[in-house]
Amino acid sequence: MTDTTPSEGRQPRASAGEAVRNSLARRNRKQMVLQGFGIAAIVFAITMLLILLTSIIGNGYHAFTQTHVELDVFIDPEEIPEEGLPRGDYDDVLAVAMGTHFPDVDLSDRIATRELTSILSNGAQYILRDKVVADPSLIGQTISVKVPVSDPYDQLHKGLVERDTEEQFRRLDNDAIDRFDRLDDLDLVSKPLNTGLITQADSRFPELAGLKGALVGSFWALLTCFVISFPLGIGAAIYLEEFAPKNRWSDLIEININNLAAVPSVVFGLLALAVFIGWFGLPRSAPFVGGLTLALMTMPTIIIATRAALKAVPPSIREAALGVGASKNQVVFQHVLPLAMPGILTGTIIGLAQALGETAPLLLIGMNAFITSAASSPFDSATALPTQIFIWADSPERGFVSRTSAAIMVLLMFLITMNAIAIYLRSKFERKW
Amino acid sequence: MTLAPFVILLFAAFVGYAINLRAAQAIRADGVRLHSLESFHGLFSLLMVIVPVLTLVLIWLAVEGAVIDALLMASLPAGVLDGLGSGAIQLIGAEIRSIAGGRVFGTPDDWKLEAAERLIGYRQASSWLLIVVVTGVSAGIVYFARGRVASGFRARQRVERITLGLMIFCAVVAIFTTVGIVAALTYETFRFFQMVPVTEFLFGLNWEPQIPIREDQIAAEGAFGAVPVFLGTIVIATVALVVAVPVGLMTAIYLNEFAPHAFRKTVKPVLEILAGVPTVVYGFFAILVVAPALRQFGASVGLDVSGNTALAAGGVMGIMLIPFISSFADDALSAVPQSLRDGALALGATRGEMMLNVLFPAAIPGIVGGVLLAVSRAIGETMIVVMAAGLMARMTINPLDSVTAVTVQIVTLLIGDTAFDNPKTLAAFALGMMLFIATLVINIFALRIVRKYREIYD
To answer: Chain A residues with CB inside 8 Å of B62's CB?
Structure first.
């Protein structure tokens, strides 16, 4: 066919083909541009994600270590008498211990002493006190203690304070840096893993602040949320999916649930503040109230997931069970529900992960209070992980920037773990019918 | 002590279950045919105990505090409360409670110490009474349920009716939640509008709730005009959408049509991570990285960018919304029937032309629905704006300025202050009401568009 010479009449056709061929490059270029935009958009989104993660990790990893200084402290019986132990001048004892490394500092000069002991964290005296109270026989002995240094020196040791910026723009003057360097040269300064981040509660001093209170608060809140929303959500979903007659009431409930899932979280906070705290008189700042609020928010998620899981169980299972004489209830509770359980659990874990990261409603019910001890029951005042992040992000001290990032890393770790469990459950137990 | 009633309740329920199970098994062992399986007789007892007694315990715990307070106040010696305002009386109550909790400050009056003693007594009496009542009622029900066990007793029907009732209750909780939200918002908003005229709130141009207002000045002109607050929300949401919509749409178009399968499979979940990051993290990201970067950039080109610029809050919110929009657009594009794709390609369109001229227009309604849902997300989003946007309400549409938002005002008005009787806190509820109505209308509208569009092709 290609061999035939084109006749005169075919000429315009060939030129149409020519026109198409000529325009093809342009049209393909247009498509390339579209693809280019697409790739650029994806690259933008992923770059933003990477910047987010690297900035958090880059700031946060500093907080996983804490600069400590090791001191040989003589527990002077003069300063710390055996009777009335919790009291006693632990501060002075520490100052004397510091003084041994700085013979040039006159310890009777209060200002000089204060400058010297400013290296140590404000919590150092309490660490020492707890040690002595636990073992009063230490009085009169010289013991070696490792205490955290205060925030500016911690920043200095981690290299976050530029030594070559001019003196007046630094938080530490040259003398302070010299003193710290002298301790460093004596090999007394170390940077061990910061276990206090997990084992201590909140504090005004960054070097002492930890997440224990927030972790405990989040635990109680999530537990309350789970205990309330899981049975309620499953019950509602089973009713709507398996039993509800198709009428105006079930339609109303259904529209309701879909709308609740889209109500802004801060509105749930207003509900909790007005109803739970204002009308019912439940305590402010309590993880129980937080959990109650989160349960109302999580319920739609669980209902929607449960209904999808129930729907995925094929009708043949129901028909077979009905066929051998099971009642409607027995079909649902003994056959359909167990088969739908993996899907329900996956949805529930994802719902709880969302609840764990939720902040705004907890702020409104006062879970952003400054509390220095962990809650022992869900009715005590507490913070939660996200509200703790909010509090620390608001704190001006330099050390709280890395603490905040570290707290975010802890929160993200929990979220990743929960989602990984959900994905694992789904892949392990999901059945294709 | 609070756990004890629950433990007793559970114990009684299981005892009831076991007793009825045994009884039914015994009847069956005699060779009599039971109407229902033995386990249903057991479950009948279990449910009969749990449902009413649990309700009783919860109601008891809910009203216990109020009743004890009333008793305590009534038992105070005559005359000590005379001439005191409600605030002072509450303060006395709080002091007595803290004494009872073992935290004694200074040397309180003797009658307060006595009252604290009495309070401890009341509390103990209440919890013992509850334990006695729970035990008694549970035992009675177990006895009653045991009496019902008989060959002809329709235990299965009873159990199924109770479980159905429980499930209906669960479903209705969702309605209660909505009713609770509407009731709380309406009630507090109504009280707010008794102090501040509606027209001032909706049309006033001056928002300065932090200024203390004298009693006779409550409706002082310009203090509660919410227009600048609404405007701020609109500015921030617009910035967010300007970032999220193009990026999200382009992502969806590429992933839906051009991306190799493996690429799509890895990129989609990575983008979903953006949607799973808690908003408080985005807020911190905005103040830690984005705002300083914008400020520096603005300084380098000679623009004065405010520290709490709407650009930072809106931009970060836009990043959060990217996966939201892209997954909605992706779904909408996938929902367009294959025949439309095939038809366009068969006519000689390139894939790019097929996408832009056929698929995209066909998917527009679904995409619009998704964008509307993103709008409702953006105006309801709280933490990012609380952390990154400003507090001062200004009449400006310049995104470089510091603007505030509805959610920021709600949070700042309510943090730390819980007196429900001044316009400052009540204003938060009025703002919440506006937010609730706006998001509700947008959501209903968007869901309708999405659903209607689905029906066209199904």
So the answer is: 280
- The C-alpha of B350 sits at a distance from chain A's nearest C-alpha, in angstroms, of 7
How many domains does the structure of chain A reveal? Answer: 2
Nearest to A28 among B184, B350, B415 (CB): B350
Contact at CB, B276 and A256, closer than 8 angstroms: no
Classify residue A10: in a domain, yes or no: no
Specify whether A422 is located in the same domain as A348.
yes
Q: Is residue A216 part of a domain?
A: yes
HEC string of B213-280 equals CCHHHCCCCCCECCHHHHHHHHHHHHHHHHHHHHHHHHHHHHHHHHCCHHHHHHHHHHHHHHHHCCHH
Tell me whether residues A257 and B276 touch, CB distance under 8 A.
Answer: no
CB contact under 8 A, A45 and B247: yes
Cβ–Cβ gap B178/A256 under 8 Å:
yes
pLDDT per residue as tens digits for the range B230-240 = 999 999 999 99
How does residue B420 score in pLDDT terms, banded at 50, 70 and 90? low
For residues A391 and A350, membership in a common domain is answered with yes
DSSP string, A116-166: HHTTB-TTHHHHHHHHHHH-GGGTTSEEEEEEEBPHHHHHHHTT-S-TTS-
User: Is B174 within 8 Å of A270 when comparing Cβ atoms?
Assistant: no
The sheet carrying A68-74 orders its strands as A142-148, A68-74, A189-190
Residues of B in contact with A283 (CB under 8 A): none
**pLDDT one digit per residue (tens) for chain A, 433 residues:** 445 554 554 555 567 778 888 888 889 999 999 999 999 999 999 999 999 999 999 989 988 989 998 888 888 777 777 776 667 778 888 888 888 888 877 777 778 888 888 888 888 888 888 888 888 888 888 888 888 888 888 888 888 777 777 777 777 788 888 888 888 888 888 888 888 888 888 888 888 888 999 999 999 999 999 999 999 999 999 999 999 888 888 888 888 888 888 899 999 999 999 888 888 878 888 999 999 999 999 999 999 999 999 999 999 999 999 999 999 999 999 999 999 999 999 999 999 999 999 999 999 998 888 888 888 888 888 999 999 999 999 888 888 999 999 999 999 999 999 999 998 988 888 777 7
Question: Mutate which of A238, A271, A306 to disrupt the B interface (most B C-beta within 10 Å)?
Answer: A271
Domains identified in chain B and CATH numbers: 3-190 (no CATH), 227-457 (1.10.3720.10)
Is A38 contained in some domain? no
Nearest to B382 among A52, A263, A266 (CB): A266
CA distance, residue A117 to nearest chain B CA (Å): 32
Tell me the per-residue pLDDT of A5-38, one tens digit each, with 9 for 90 and over. 545 545 555 677 788 888 888 899 999 999 999 9
ipTM topping 0.85 = yes
Helix (H, G, I), strand (E, B) or coil at A65: strand
Q: Do A408 and B274 touch (CB under 8 A)?
A: no
User: Where in A139-281 does DSSP place strands (E)?
Assistant: 142-148, 189-190
Q: What's this model's pTM, rounded to 2 decimal places?
A: 0.88
Q: Is the CB of residue B192 less than 8 Å from the CB of residue B429?
A: yes
How much is the CA Rg of chain A, to the nearest whole Å?
33
- Measured CA angle at B140 (ends B135, B143), to 5 deg: 125
